[in-house]
């Protein structure tokens, strides 16, 4: 995928049930910008290179490990704990090499506090993106809502930004109910992606 994510959902109110006369002006302008973006050959270009992580939450991390590591045999590669993020997690790995997918099994340190990493159980997915800052700028310009915090360093040291699961009146496009983490792909991931494309006989990306 490149040049944007046109499948991102608009806000909670469906266009099938809202006439153009009643649609709020901010949403109308955002949707018009998105239409022009899709039709423009000069739009900013970026690429989604693959799945970076899947984060699953629960009140009992041991139960999650029993399934993924014990029954399914997915190896555990490390651990992460953050009082600020209210998370105690096990980091598992699916596959090998730069394009391996990280599987995070998350348990809240305090279930009564936010963020509630156990709810929903599928907490978020992560995507390798290159270049991240251009992707964020392009998507924001077309009405995609991002979670507060902007681009910042993630737990693994890569720059990240989160597409909000819900849209707003001014930024109506969203992750369709799913929190989506965009992760800046490091050089080794970009190189592995290019090698996999070459091996598959795919045409060169026009970026």
From TrEMBL:
Domain of life according to the entry: Eukaryota
InterPro entries found in the cross-reference section: Glyas_Bleomycin-R_OHBP_Dase (IPR029068), MMCE/EMCE_epimerase (IPR051785), VOC_core (IPR037523)
Residue intervals of the VOC domain: 50-185
Keyword Metal-binding in annotation: yes
GO cellular component: mitochondrion
SUPFAM superfamilies: Glyoxalase/Bleomycin resistance protein/Dihydroxybiphenyl dioxygenase
Protein name, as recorded: VOC domain-containing protein
Organism this protein belongs to: Diacronema lutheri
